[in-house]
């Protein structure tokens, strides 16, 4: 394997890892927001900086 193809393979692998981490992070943030909304509805989750009240 030549050094150019190895370098390209490493760069592609790093880009693939960054993309996977990005999409997984978006998924986690979405799940956290849904969990916080459920806690707000139950009245358990109360932050002092929550400005809008959901009805």
Can you give a write-up of this model?
With 55 residues, this protein is an all-alpha fold. It has one helix and no strands. The relative contact order is 0.07.
Quickly describe the structure.
With 55 residues, the chain is mainly α.
Number of helices: 1
Class computed from helices, strands and strand pairing: mainly alpha
Helix/strand order:
H
The CA-CA distance between the termini, in Å, is 62 Å
Number of strands: 0
Question: What topology emerges from the helices and strands here?
Answer:
Blueprint: H1 3-42
Keywords:
73% helix; rod-shaped; 55 residues
């Amino acid at each position: 394997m030549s050094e150019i193809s190895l370098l390209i393979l490493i760069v592609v692998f790093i880009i693939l890892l960054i993309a996977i981490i990005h999409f997984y992070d978006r998924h986690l943030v979405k799940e956290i927001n849904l969990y916080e909304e459920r806690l707000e509805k139950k009245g358990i989750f109360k932050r002092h900086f929550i400005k809008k009240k959901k009805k």
